[in-house]
Amino acid sequence: MTDATYETGRLIGIMAALRDPATGCPWDIEQDFASIAPYTIEEAHEVADAIHRKAWDELPGELGDLLLQVVFHAQMASEAGMFDFADVARAISDKLVARHPHVFGDESRDKSAAQQVRDWETIKATERAARAERGALDGVALGLPALTRAIKLQNRAARVGFDWPATDQVLDKLAEETAELVAARDSGDATHLAEEMGDLLFVVANLARHLNIDPEEALRAANAKFTRRFQSIEAALARDGRRPEESDLAEMDALWDAAKAAERGQAL
Q: Coiled-coil regions in this chain (predicted)?
């Protein structure tokens, strides 16, 4: 605890020095909440990426980068007289204690994980009501990745009964939205096409939710698979001294199938 306290204080001090109007770093001084927010999101994704890759030696550095974002925001808020890092730490500590009465209060721990999740949602609903968030969808952050936000919106709606009872209805809706996308494409209306594409993606997210699949994780895995297989195509062509632009679709398709078969063979 002594080391953590010292290093946290040191980091806060370094950030304050970087923001010092007279002696700090010009880039850091110029930043504001809006300009730093994209970096905060990026660093959170880099933490998730390190965990996904099981790059445990990289994780402390990535978590440090994410912590810097918290300290940066807190420093700017302190300069504006709004709050400081201590307020941030106090807020999350108070929230954790309030949301775990079975650990920090007098409630029994003798309950299932599912019951604890229901209790957690009840507590969060009370907190939202205290913030005058009366609508079922109030408080779902706009800055979330779109697929993640879609899931959260759908979960909120489902809690009040607005949901399909089974995946069959979602699949029917997926077919309907696909047909509407084709019609929009054929109409030549770019705005309508973008809208229908959004509707289709929203239903895909809903299907993932009904199948208990995290669509962000599923798409991340698909991206990684695409990268591996395309790199296999590049490697195969490089052995002949060629690049993809010197090949054609038929050849690259065959190399893709070979990479796919090789992956499946390794999995057996």
A: none
